[in-house]
Amino acid sequence: MAIYSVKEIYYTIQGEGFYTGKPAIFCRFVGCNLWTGREKDRENAKCNFCDTDFVGTDGLEGGTYDGSQSLALKIISLWPSAVRPFVVLTGGEPLLQVDNELIKELKNNNFKIAIETNGTILAPKGIDWICVSPKIGTKIIQNFGDELKIVFPQKGLELKDYEEYDFKHFSLQPMDGKLIEQNTKLTIECCMKNPKWNLSLQTHKIIGIN
Hints:
It is built from four helices and nine strands; from the N terminus they run E-E-E-H-E-H-E-E-E-E-H-E-H. The protein has helices spanning 68-77, 100-108, 180-193, 203-207; strands at 3-13, 23-29, 63-66, 86-90, 112-117, 129-132, 144-152, 166-174, 198-199.
């Protein structure tokens, strides 16, 4: 039986990417293979601009879940409607933990499943929407899916290196932080020059929700 370590599970509005505005349950898994999540390690991390807390199990509905059924039942309990439930598996890096067993259990509960991954681990079959957010300097294994969403700008990153990947949608998202205003302008300009790419904004931060 698999044991899943989860930072938090909560019902919200998807704030970024293709599904911006869609009600969803977010299940955030503990851990990442590109950064420990600890500030002391940020400078030397493969991904040093992460804006997410994925350390520990102390978030809303966070904890250690014994088995896929236990986790799936907790997730489904947060869905408020008879409409087909939608879950976003995220992290950290969710594919360190997400497996065939969990996908099967979520499908048994009629979930539409989306995942947000850095692309360094191959996703199991059965996921309905794969969103890959690559980080410069990493080897992308999951180079196909539904959405390629790049945090922009990243030093040394060339968009053309990713444009031949097999994705249906391509988007650029301004890197958050002290330079967010400047980065937003740069991202808009880049999308205008390269219309293959759409602009993605973190609207959940703009409207003040998780």
